[in-house]
Amino acid sequence: MNPETPTTKDPKPSDSYVQSFARGLEVIRSFSAATPQQTLSEVAAQTGLTRAGARRILLTLQTLGYVETDGKLFRLSPRILDLGFAYLSSLPIWNLAEPVMEDLVEEVRESSSAAVLDGLDIVYVLRVPTHKIMRTNLGVGSRLPAPWTSMGRMLLAGLPDEELVTRLAPHPLERFTAHTATDLPTLLARIREARQQGWCLVNQELEEGLISIAAPLADRTGRTVAALNISGQANRTSAEMMQETLLPALLSAARTISRMMGAPRSR
């Protein structure tokens, strides 16, 4: 046998950990917008596998229809979307939430999205755009850093305070714009404010000109499991306008979706 070179982050194989499956997922994740096509050597380098190990995984994925190749370059096939849609289809609430969000977008004339928390990222699970032209190009599966987005802060606000600090403390606080909160005390204060008031507004902290406001989506236990937002351009939608004219509609839509998930009516 010629086992792949182990990586320090890999747990040891056991009854509860299938190493070959984990490495297959690493191969899939090695493809991205920056690396949509890769040679065998590039996949091996990105994943820490030997060429032989990477080749076996790529050929397995090709046999299953998840990878395509021209003989030199490998790329993910459209069938890979089945893996993401399996998650979305397992949450029928999004099928119910979409018409509520469509009504919200029709009412406020701004785009609306729903996202969940994954580590310190938010992942978009549903998006209903308006017809206005925006610079952001976000869709289902897009990721953004949670600390500097309205949905991310709303989701982080749903964590116990001790867990919140534990997650954020080792995280580097990047400066994206002149408005970005880059010190931990300020960031924690803004997240706690969102928790207290039940909504969160972020004004141009991630991208100049981008403003958004978010509300929590709760399940039957009252736990925040997702967030809903309205996003717009700061040059035509001020923070005051967001709060005064768009927030009531957003909170109403969030309550409607939360009730669909069985949340108590007091939410």
Mind explaining what this structure looks like?
- This protein is α+β, with helices and mostly antiparallel strands and 267 residues long.
- The chain is 41% helix and 19% strand.
- The chain has helices spanning 19-29, 40-47, 51-63, 81-89, 93-108, 150-157, 161-168, 184-197, 239-260; strands at 37-38, 67-69, 74-76, 111-118, 121-128, 143-145, 200-203, 210-218, 224-233.
- The strands form two sheets. It has a six-stranded antiparallel β-sheet, with helices on both faces.
- Strand 2 (67-69) and strand 3 form a beta hairpin.
- The protein is globular, with a radius of gyration of 21 Å.
- It starts with 18 loop residues before the first helix and ends in a 7-residue tail after the last helix.
- Residues 1-8 have low confidence and may be disordered.
Short structural summary:
This protein is an alpha+beta fold and 267 residues long. 41% of the residues lie in helices and 19% in strands. It has a 6-stranded antiparallel beta sheet with strand order 6-5-4-9-8-7, with helices on both faces.
